[in-house]
Each structure stands twice: as C-alpha cells, then as structure tokens.
Input
Amino acid sequence: MKYRYLGNSNLRVSAVGLGTWAYGNDTFGQVEDQQSIRAIRAAVDAGINLIDTAPAYGAGHAEKVVGQAIEGIRDKVIIASKCGTHRDGPKYIRDLRPKRIRKELEDSLRRLNVEQIDLYQIHWPDPDTPLEKSVEELLKLKKEGKFKYLGVCNFELDMLDKISRMTDVISLQPQYSLLKRDIETEISTYLIDNNLGALSYGTLGGGILSAKYKERPEFDDEKDKRSGFYPFFKKENWPQTQSLIRLLEEMADKQNQTPAQIAINWSINRPGITTALVGAKNEKQARENAAAADFELTEAEMLALTQESDKVIKNLKI
Output
C-alpha cells in the first residue's frame, strides 16, 4: 500500500480508501452487517487506513457499522465523516444550519463510538444557509475537540475558494473516475497549487468499471439506486462505455490484475488525487481494492486509458 499526506495535514492516508455508502443498505442493494464488518476489517488488514462514511448513508446505519468494525482498532484507522445532508425517506435533504451541524456531529460521534473524528466534511453545499454561519459553528466544534480537520465534498471551484479564504480546509471529495473527469478542467490545478488533498469517490462508476456486468443491468430502484446517481448505466450510455471496459479487461489480463484494479490504479496516479475511495461489499473485494496500489501501470498504459476515456466521455449523454 502507498501512503500520502492529505493536503497540508499530518494525516497519512492510504492511496486506496474505503467508501461505506453501500453499508447504509438503502442505495446499493442489501449487505448483511456482519459481512460489512468483515469487509472493513479485511480492508484494514490489507493496509487501507482511511474509512469514509456519512450520516446520510442509511440514515446513520453505515456509521453504526463502521463503529462496530473499528472497535479495538481505532488507532489503526483515519475516520472521515460528513455533515449537511440527511435522509427524509427517499430524499436527501441539504441542511447546513448551525443547530443541525452540531446535532449531526454529536450523533456521528455516538454512532461511531469515537471521541473525535479525524476529517469532518461538508457533504454538499446548502444554498439556503450562509456558508459563513456554517463555518462559524464548525470552528466552534473543532475548538471543542470534536473533529481534527475540516474538508468539503462536491464543492465547485468558486465555493472551494470561498471557504478556503474563510478557514483552513485540507481536502475536497469530488466524484472522479475514467468516466467522470470534470475536476481536471480547473479544480485539480487549484488543489495542487493550494496543497489541498483530494479523496475521489465513484472510482468504479458505481461498479461499471469493474467489468463484471456483461449486459446492461436492470437495478431494482427500490433497493439499488445507483443507476440514478451514475448515469453510465442508462440505455443511451451503456454502449458508449464498452470500448473502455474492453481496454480495462485487456490491460487486466496483461498485468494479471482485475479490471477494477486497473481503474483504481489509474485514478490514484492522476494529478491531484490523494486517495481513491472504493466500496467493498465483502472481504475479497476489500483485499483486491487494497492491492490496486501495489503495482504500476506503464506510462503508455496510463495514456491509453486516458485517451480512451476522453473518447467515451465525449459521447456520454449526461
């Protein structure tokens, strides 16, 4: 496993991190809690030390699962959680009012069974609450010792720059993969120039880049909502992705890796990316994800993937 410092902090994080959205059991199908706990433990055993979660994942359920999994190994992991987004039935509500932030943080500490969260992140911007008010409350909570470092997720460049002028943030969590590269236009340069870390999510595009789907999957939207979040599964986009999937499979054969490992390795070696967050529903996936940092793609392979990605993205209807 490779380890890197996150921005200008003293958090030394693994190049592959563990995303826990699936453990909420309401977005990526059902996962049995004990299986999730075993997957988390396997990830840590394999060298992954960054675990990213959020109250919005299963209305706090994912945090509870993480809390159980890290019991006895708290010193081996860096915990990242979030505020500002909560569930109201099937809806995600963005709410960064100070009162809500305080409640969410205290609830997260209780569910995770920790005294302090290492990286606390604003999950999504809230257009109805002045950012200054949210930051003021977050700084109070930081001073109280409830979290160590502040980060943000899903911020566009103007918002990222705005909050960076208000206070110290160490990282951005954007969606980034071979099928989603918007941040390369301006944000990646900003991150590098300002020594900010990046925890990229959606590394496998909801699983499409694992090449495990030989035909376009039809997800049960009641139990598995990924096709609503990742448009690559839509009928009009599925054919456009297949040339990239084939290239991943070819490289995987040559490297004696899986297509998912090739996609993850590409991501962690792109400019500005500190850690690629990847979900794991079982121990095997967790170990394979971790091993994605243990080999090197050649410059020619990196370039070929990037060029094929360029072609595919131009034809996606998003």
